[in-house]
Amino acid sequence: MRLIILWLLKYPPQPNQVKELEDIFGDIKIKHVPTIIGDSSEVIDLMEKHFANHVVATLPIQVIADLTLLGIYPICPSWRKELNDAGETIFIHDHFDQVKGVEIVSCPINHRMYGWNRSEANK
Questions:
Q1: How far is residue 64's CA from residue 24's CA, in Å, rounded to a whole number?
Q2: How far apart are CA 107 and CA 119, in angstroms?
Q3: Cα-based distances in Å from 5 to 40, 89, 93, 120
Q4: Would you say 73 and 99 are in contact if contact means Cβ atoms under 8 Å apart?
Q5: Residues 93, 14: contact at Cβ < 8 Å?
Q6: Using one digit for the tens of pLDDT, what is the confidence trace for 47-105?
Q7: Max alpha carbon distance in the chain (Å)?
Q8: Which candidate, 11, 15, 53, 66, places its Cα nearest to that of 33?
Q9: CA distances from 25 to 19, 31, 50, 52 (A)
């Protein structure tokens, strides 16, 4: 059975990314929908619209957390930085990660924690 992968990134997948996903999942069809996602319901709607089994995206952490609680485990591309022959920084696909869960731990912060004074910064 052919799996449908919803690709919610600005740029279409590179051939090496398609090959990697084929190695992982077998027979796949990638549906590229370049869009900005605001919440998990948008991802779910798009998955339903395109009959997608999986989603590849870079999403806000809260959206990822919400999706994992619903049993949807987003696949996120991981990149590494390299320098090309001209000395420019380029990003090369390294691998995919599938997010199985998210724990968000936060605390209030203020300027005293980071050693700067707001009044001095505005001078």
A1: 21
A2: 23
A3: 16, 29, 18, 51
A4: yes
A5: yes
A6: 999 999 999 999 999 999 999 999 999 999 999 999 999 999 999 999 999 999 998 88
A7: 64
A8: 11
A9: 10, 15, 18, 13
Task: Please tell me the distance from the alpha carbon of residue 67 to that of residue 79, in angstroms, as a whole number.
Answer: 22
With bands split at pLDDT 50, 70 and 90, how would you rate the model's confidence at 110?
A: confident
Task: State pTM to two decimals.
Answer: 0.80
Span 8-46, pLDDT tens digits: 999 999 999 999 999 999 999 999 999 999 999 999 999
Q: Are 47 and 55 in contact (CB under 8 A)?
A: yes
User: Could you give the CA distance from residue 28 to residue 25 in angstroms, rounded to a whole number?
Assistant: 7
Cα 50 to Cα 58: distance, rounded to the nearest angstrom = 18
| Encoded tokens for 7 | 């690709």
